[in-house]
Design a protein that fits this description.
Radius of gyration: 38 Å
Mean pLDDT: 87
Structural class: mainly alpha
Number of helices: 9
Oligomer: single chain
Low-confidence stretches: none
Amino acid sequence: MSLTLQAAKEVTAKLPPVLKSFFAKYPPSTLKAYASTQTLTTADDRNPFLPAIHPVTKVVHDPVYSLRRQSVIFKLAQDYGLETLLPSMDKKFGLEKKEGKLPMKGVVRPKGAAYERNYEDRMLAKEKAIAQIDEKILSVKGNRYKRRLEKRKDWPKNMF
């Protein structure tokens, strides 16, 4: 037993001060059970990462460690492989954080630039205008252009 105690002291000596002080106040979850939901502020199994309810006033108190401090503690514990020893927390990290989220609307259905959105309408308008170009020119130039169009019908088709 003294060998394991000495090994534990060596491991804790190598921990950063933030983790040392945390584990001094709140022993690892293997040694002490912590609540996974809100409890009273006076409860023995109060989780420092979750809000607690005052027994007399019924006011909800903030967690002992804010979300920012929770993430610092969790990331340090993760670096040392001790994240399983921490009490349960509401905050999510890494892939677990992104599992329930929907992708952004702009990624699923990108809006596109104005010229991209209007491309098909412009092409249809251009084809329609090209189809009606002879009538427009005829209305401006008159009979001389009409004779030219009639001659053009007899010309051989362009091979290209």
